[in-house]
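Notes to self after the Tuesday call (sharing in case useful).
The group wants a holo model before anyone commits to mutagenesis around the pocket. I volunteered. Ligand is zinc ion. Logging inputs and output together so the record is complete.
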Amino acid sequence: MSTDSTDSSNAADRSREPGQGLTKEEAFHRLLEGHWRYLENKRLHRTVTTEDRGFHAQGQYPLAALLGCADSRVSPELIFDQGEGDIFVVRVAGNIVGEAEVASLEYAVANLGVKLLVVLGHENCGAVKAALTMNNAPGALGFLLREIAPAVAEAQALPGSLLHNAVDCNVKHSVHMLLERSDTLRKAVDDGLVRVVGVVYELSTGDIKFHATIG
Ligand SMILES: [Zn+2]
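Result:
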């Protein structure tokens, strides 16, 4: 087992300030840098020491909060090459904006001082695909598909792949729903404190594309 920690993410070096003391622009750049490392297979070698655990036990200082799909292939910490305590992650199939998701992200902004919110959708999303193909979904699944339905309707008016367009529209829809359903988040964006970005992850290439940036 390697004990080399020269290139590890040392929690002891992290800022104990809200949002790790970063502006929304700096937090965005930090995530982009992590994604470039991921794309180039240069992810940081991270170790978790006793000191790290002690740091985490005292509190959390994530640089971003993220609403992503529950899909097993779309892991935010891997895609953005971040470590423990770096991203406050909320995952739900289809990255929909329900009450619990809104509450979680409000907590991240109001209590943890996060200045960057990311909505992360992805290529070939099963939840979006289900919204395209299922008319009467059983049980709670119906709620989820109804949340995606407006994005499907928008995509049906666009040229090209319906599924591809619906995924893009669903990310944009979630960004707008976050701001529509949360006074806290909308005010934070209007006040210039928080940025919200919509991102689609391409499973086939590992790349990301931006579909909405507000703030
Ligand atoms: Zn998905």
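Two things stood out.
Strands lie at 64-68, 87-91, 116-122, 195-201, 208-214.
Residues 1-12 have pLDDT under 50 and may be disordered.
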